[in-house]
Specification:
heterotetramer, A mainly alpha, B mainly alpha, C mainly alpha, D mainly alpha, A: mainly alpha, Helix Hairpins, D: two-stranded antiparallel sheet
């Protein structure tokens, strides 16, 4: 197997891309997808570590992340749909009524 | 250069390119497609890491369910593009800068401490198989597993309530 | 198969012991939960079966004891474990307790069966058929509690049964709580029984506490084992325990001075009188003394007291019985008197004789009460007949006088109308009177023979009591069954159904043959009990004693016949106004009235104890509690002081000080928050940006550290 | 060894490419018989060359692309549709191993321990081609068809996936070969899982958009649904995907429930395995065509309600009962 560093490095790169996506994009759906990308990169690191340490726990954690991500997407997209119904936009900058 | 390394480099490039494409695309549908591509490549990485079950679950759940849901919502809302201009123009360069700093930092960590991770042993028989995952999941992690099922149920109910039109 | 194997030391059924409690409990639960849907027959059958199964278990235990007379302790679970106090639910299976189990469940089962018929009419006569089920639930509860009492292997568990049967007694005396004098007479009787028993129970508790102090245990074996040692160290301790226990005995077994509740307890339905207030519960005191025999034999002083109480009670109650007119009251005083015999016997140390008399008495007294019930219902049926026959009604019931179906003055001549009842009643009466060769003769004679050797005073008390016993029984038989009917209902009395008469016949047979248990010379029963009460001795048959008592009994019966048959008929010639209701009244004069009024003991108690106690209570309630404690202390001191304190706290402390701090904090927080809120721009992305800035800084810090 | 693997893969894809064409003929013939017609019989002996003629016709058709369409995705969509259909069969075994010109070759591509999951994974990504085709056409019928089919396939995928669980529980493995072995031992799972089999069959009808669940392409409402704007070879690809998927699910049904390549004497003569499987596939295909000829289309809301309120609870119940019985019997 390749050194785990490779996978962890790739995971870090994907994570940073996700972070940048969250900060720069205004489209709520893309922000959401960036978050999924970050979760996914974390999963990749989990699986890589699980392989290195030969511990199934890492893979089980990925399993949990999958399940929670699915739940998150279901609720998040439902939120987005209902926001779109009231605001007619999914630009997160338009959703700023909660400011001080 | 082994065959595995070549495969890794190609897939890593595809994955990074897909991630960048996802972030940079103007059109949300393209973003979603790039993300699917990224997920599929990650699934292949899972296969390389002896996690066949997770690879299949990754494709089924992420590509098959989550991303379909994304596409569905994008098409339903007709929100492929967002009009108007950025109200926080200074944020974009700052974000790129921060991302770069973070990259340098992690790169430094990975390079300076690469020896910290032990070399991977040969994967044991049945490592990553459904049986192995099941054994761990239903013994060690039974309570979290059940809690997850409740989380999913709550999310399902929440999604139904949220997307219901208020009369 | 079982019998032979048990006799040869084969299978033992000791482990079945808990079932003697569980079976009645199951029966009561079934009736309690599902009974409302069952018919009366089913309810009665379930209750009788439950009791019968308990009897079956008792028989199996007895069979096992034949092979293993040393018995066994069947431990169920731990009950109380507090430091030195270790109490178990455990069953003592030995020859003494199994005798009691057999009597309780055997007689109990017969009475259950009898009650199926009796209560069927009783609930209708009293106008509430819904209470049929309740009666059988109580009966089963009683059997269960009695079994706990006799089966226990320690004084605490025994006390549970002791209180449990007291509760059942209370419930069943007040079974028709809305009937009786002024509609609460029965409830008052139940209350009286409860309170008087409470005095006795207090004695029992004192005995138990003293016992724990002295022995640090309640287990029979341990107590008995330590008894000689404790007696040597502190003789007063055992005396205190036994005398306190005697107080408990006088309460439960209706001895002087706490006997007063038992006559009133006749307010309960007749099967209850038979089961609880004649055959089983009231003998618990006798059983307790026999059980604690090893303690009593250590203190002759206590033995003397016990036997004296028994002897005096026996004579005292027997004289009262002579002048009673209520058929059940006569039997009630007779019971007290007979219990006196038993208590005197076990007090003297004649434990086998006492227990023997307990067994035979259970047979014939249950028989007498049940037969009396049969008589009462027969007369009630007659009354019913008269009520519904318009012509007779007009003719006879014009006076409007309330008819009492229990008053012997209203009976007479029933022997031809209720033949079976008459025969069994006669057997019971002769057994009680002590006529050869019925059961009562053998057991009473054994007591008398022992008394003549051990305690002459008691012997004479008991002999005279025996004379009165024969006399009042003769009087009762003649008044009830002979002569002409003295009222219209008696004229139309009808025999009871077989479900009632069959148990009577069984009991009658037992009353005839019961003496065979312990015939002189054979001493089967004494030998049986010897396994448990190792120091008892078979009583010698004394021909003189037997001759004297038999002669006195016959004399008494002849006297009764002369008075109540001959003289009564002679008196009929007198005009109604001058005619005495009892031929004895003109002969004895004021003494008869005194006897009829039970020596005015209730009145004396009322004047000496109840009234002062009520006055004291009223004083405490009105003056101390209400005027002093409530009006003055609570209202003035506490409430007033509290109001003052709260005023100071609320105005000065709360408003002036604490509120000021709160307001200042609130203003300050609001001012700061107003400035801070500007940080919240409403742009999610910039929040995220700050998170990332923090992430970069933290990672950088970790790297440069 | 890798060459053997590549040869088998290519062979399998070729079988699918040619097979699809003849399944269309098979369908037309059977439909015609069921409707008391003759069916295609002009091209070649009993119409055997009809698929060839159809293919030639489609190749020479003009390729139209709508002006408003998203061109890249419009081209990508048919490919995304056909690829899953082609690789679906990779895990279905045709037999164990057989002698072939003196060397022993295995009659399956891959025996992986997550084969059944592989099927669900492939089934789940086959949605994309259709939804993207619909969306990229910029045609309201096509978009509507695409969205409908997305919802329908996601809904029925759950019941489909759950219907696999019964055989997995009984066999105790997710390997297709293991499942066939178990059936050789105790008999076809269709006997143990009649309800599961029925659920599987209904769910596959919906997954392949076959009648009576052909809502995405309901002609009366949506003209031709997601492929309204497609023509020529691109249309042919959609067509091919549908029929290849039919072959695929029939093969899977045969393997999971009808004993796979198992049959009399298959252990003595291994080459009988592919034959038995072929017969079973043909039988399953016949069932699908029969249903198409017999049942009318279901209204869309009924279809969704059926999927969520009947099929899904039923399959959950089926799993519960199966698991319970296995625990009680102690087998599996």
């Amino acid at each position: 197997m390749l050194p785990a560093t490779y996978y962890v490095g790739l995971s870090a790169i994907l994570f940073i891309i996700g972070v940048v996506g969250v900060i720069t994009r205004r489209n709520a759906i893309i922000i959401f997808m960036s978050i999924e990308l970050m979760l996914n990169s974390a999963n990749l690191a989990f699986v890589a570590f699980a392989r290195v340490h030969e511990a199934m726990s890492g893979q089980v954690f990925v399993f949990f992340v999958l399940a929670v991500a699915a739940a998150e997407v279901a609720v998040g997209l439902a939120l987005m749909v209902s926001i779109f119904h009231t605001k007619h936009s999914i630009d997160v900058d338009n959703i700023s009524s909660l400011k001080g | 250069m082994t065959l595995e390394l070549i495969l890794f480099i190609i897939l890593a490039l595809v994955a990074v390119a897909a991630a960048l494409g996802m972030v940079l695309s103007r059109n949300t549908v393209y973003s979603a497609l790039f993300l699917i591509l990224n997920f599929v490549t990650v699934a292949v990485f899972y296969l390389m890491l002896n996690a066949a079950f997770l690879a299949m679950a990754q494709i089924t759940v992420y590509a098959g369910a989550i991303m379909v849901l994304f596409l569905f919502v994008i098409m339903l809302l007709g929100a492929e593009r967002i009009p108007g201009e950025d109200k926080l123009p200074w944020q974009k360069p700052l974000a790129v800068f921060l991302g770069f700093v973070l990259l340098v930092e992690t790169g430094y960590i990975l390079i300076s401490r690469s020896g910290i991770l032990p070399p991977a042993p040969t994967a044991g028989e049945g490592f990553g198989s459904p049986e192995a995952i099941g054994m761990v999941l239903f013994n060690q992690y039974l309570l979290p597993f059940e809690v997850t099922s409740i989380v999913l149920l709550v999310a399902m109910i929440g999604a139904v309530i949220l997307s219901r039109r208020v009369k | 198969m079982f019998l032979s194997e048990a006799a040869t030391g084969g299978p033992q059924f000791f482990y079945l012991a808990p079932w003697i409690v569980i079976f009645p409990a199951i029966g009561l639960l079934i009736n309690l939960i599902f009974g409302s849907r069952f018919s009366e027959k089913v309810i009665g059958a379930i209750a009788s079966t439950a009791s019968g199964l308990a009897f079956g278990v008792a028989v199996l235990l007895g069979v096992s004891l034949v092979g293993h007379p040393e018995g066994e302790i069947v431990s169920l679970i731990d009950w109380i474990t507090i430091g030195a106090l270790q109490v178990r639910w455990a069953f003592q299976v030995d020859t003494l307790s199994v005798v009691m189990m057999l009597v309780v469940s055997g007689v109990g089962t017969l009475i259950h069966i009898y009650s199926i018929g009796y209560m069927h009419e009783d609930v209708r006569h009293n106008g509430d058929p819904g209470r049929y089920r309740r009666f059988f639930i109580y009966l089963n509860l009683f059997i269960a509690m009695m079994m706990i009492l006799v089966g226990s292997n320690n004084y605490m568990m025994l006390f549970v049964g002791w209180e449990g049967v007291g509760l059942c007694s209370y419930l069943l005396i007040g079974f028709w709580y809305d009937k009786g004098k002024d509609g609460i007479g029965n409830a008052l009787a139940a209350k009286k029984a409860f309170i008087v028993n409470r005095v006795g129970d207090f004695g029992f508790l004192l005995a138990a506490f003293t016992m724990f102090w002295a022995f640090r245990t309640f287990d029979f074996q341990e107590v008995f084992a330590k008894a000689p040692e404790v007696a040597a160290a502190a003789p007063g301790m055992i005396l205190a325990i036994t005398l306190f226990m005697l107080l408990g005995v006088t309460g439960k077994s209706a001895q002087l001075p706490l006997y007063v509740w038992l006559p009133d307890a006749m307010a309960g339905p007749t099967p209850v009188s038979a089961l609880i207030h004649a055959a089983t519960m009231v003998t618990a005191g006798v059983y307790l003394v026999a059980r604690s025999a090893e303690l009593y034999v250590l203190v002759p002083q206590a033995q003397m007291w016990v036997s004296l109480v028994g002897g005096i009670t026996a004579l005292f109650a027997a004289t009262i019985a002579v002048a009673q007119f209520d058929i059940k009251k006569v039997l009630a005083y007779s019971t007290i008197s007979q219990l006196g015999f038993m208590v005197a016997a076990v007090g003297m140390g004649a434990f086998a004789a006492g227990m023997f008399h307990l067994v035979t008495h259970a047979f014939f007294k249950a028989l007498l009460f049940l037969s009396a019930g049969s008589v009462i219902q027969g007369v009630e049926r007659g009354e019913h007949h008269v009520d519904h026959d318009a012509k007779l009604h007009k003719l006879l019931k014009g006076s409007g006088h309330h008819f009492d179906p229990q008053d012997m003055r209203n009976m007479g001549g029933l022997r031809s109308r209720m033949k079976t009842t008459f025969v069994v009643y006669l057997i019971g009466a002769l057994a009680l009177a002590g006529i050869v060769p019925l059961a009562g003769f053998w057991s009473k004679d054994e007591i008398l023979a022992e008394a003549s050797l051990l305690n002459p005073t008691v012997y004479w008390l008991l002999t005279i009591a025996a004379f009165f016993t024969a006399f009042y029984m003769g009087r009762q038989i003649i008044m009830v069954f002979f002569g002409k009917p003295r009222s219209a209902p008696a004229e139309y009395a009808q025999e009871s159904p077989p479900v009632m008469t069959v148990p009577l016949m069984v009991l009658a047979a037992l009353s005839v043959l019961g003496g065979a248990l312990n015939l002189p010379g054979m001493h089967t029963f004494t030998g049986w009990l010897e396994h448990t009460l190792t120091f008892i001795h078979p009583g010698e048959f004394n021909l003189v004693v037997a001759g004297v008592s038999t002669g006195l009994a016959l004399l008494a019966i002849i006297l009764a016949w002369l008075l109540y048959s001959r003289r009564y008929q002679a008196l009929q010639a007198l005009p109604t106004a001058k005619r005495p209701d009892d031929p004895l009244r003109p002969i004895l004069g004021p003494i008869f009235t005194l006897l009829e009024n039970k020596y005015k003991v209730d009145e004396i108690y009322d004047a000496l104890i109840v009234k002062p106690y009520a006055a004291l209570s009223a004083f405490l309630a009105d003056v101390i509690d209400w005027k002093f404690w409530h009006d003055w202390f609570h209202d003035k001191i506490i409430a007033g002081g509290f109001q003052l304190l709260t005023r100071v706290l609320s105005v000065q402390v709360d408003l002036g000080f604490i509120d000021a701090i709160g307001n200042a904090l609130g203003k300050g927080t609001r001012a700061v928050a107003g400035r801070m809120s500007l940080l919240q721009s409403g742009y999610v992305r910039s929040y995220m940006l700050s998170v990332v800035v923090g992430l970069v800084l933290i990672v950088g810090f970790l790297l440069l550290r | 060894m890798i060459w053997e693997w590549i040869i088998k893969s290519v062979l399998l894809i070729l079988v699918m490419l040619v097979g699809f064409a003849y399944v269309t003929l098979y369908e037309r013939k059977v439909l015609a018989r069921l409707q008391v017609r003759v069916g295609p019989n002009r091209a070649g002996p009993s119409g055997l060359l009809q698929p060839v003629a159809d293919g030639i016709k489609l190749i020479f058709k003009e390729e139209l692309i709508p002006a408003m369409a998203d061109k890249k995705i419009f081209l990508l969509a048919p490919i995304l549709t056909v690829v899953p259909a082609l690789i679906l069969l990779a895990v279905v075994p045709w037999g164990r191993s057989a002698p072939f010109f003196g060397r022993e070759i295995t009659l399956y591509l891959a025996d992986i321990n997550v084969a059944v999951l592989y099927i669900t994974a492939i089934a789940s990504i086959s949605v994309y081609g259709i939804v993207l085709a619909g969306w990229s056409s910029s045609n309201k019928y096509a978009t509507m068809g695409g969205i409908r089919s997305t919802a329908q396939m996601i809904s029925y995928e759950l019941a489909l996936g759950l219907s696999f669980v019964g055989p997995i529980l009984i066999a105790g493995t997710m390997s297709m070969l293991g499942i066939v072995d178990k059936q050789q031992e105790i008999g076809w799972f269709a006997l143990y899982q009649p309800v599961g089999f029925l659920i599987f069959f209904i769910a596959t009808l919906a997954e392949t958009n076959r009648a009576p669940f052909d809502m995405p392409e309901a002609e009366q409402e949506l003209t031709a649904g997601y492929h309204t704007e497609y023509s020529g070879m691109k249309f042919a690809l959609f067509y091919m995907a549908e029929y290849d998927k039919m072959i695929g699910v029939s093969a899977i049904a045969a393997t999971l429930f009808l004993g796979g390549f198992d049959g009399p004497f298959v252990n003595q003569i291994p080459w009988l395995g592919p034959l038995y499987l072929f017969i079973k596939i043909a039988f399953m295909l016949f069932l699908m065509i029969w249903v198409r000829a017999t049942l009318p289309r279901i209204r869309y809301d009924h279809l969704m309600a059926f999927g969520w309120k009947v099929l899904l609870p039923l399959s959950l119940l089926n799993i519960m009962v199966t698991a319970l019985v296995i625990v009680l019997v102690g087998g599996g």
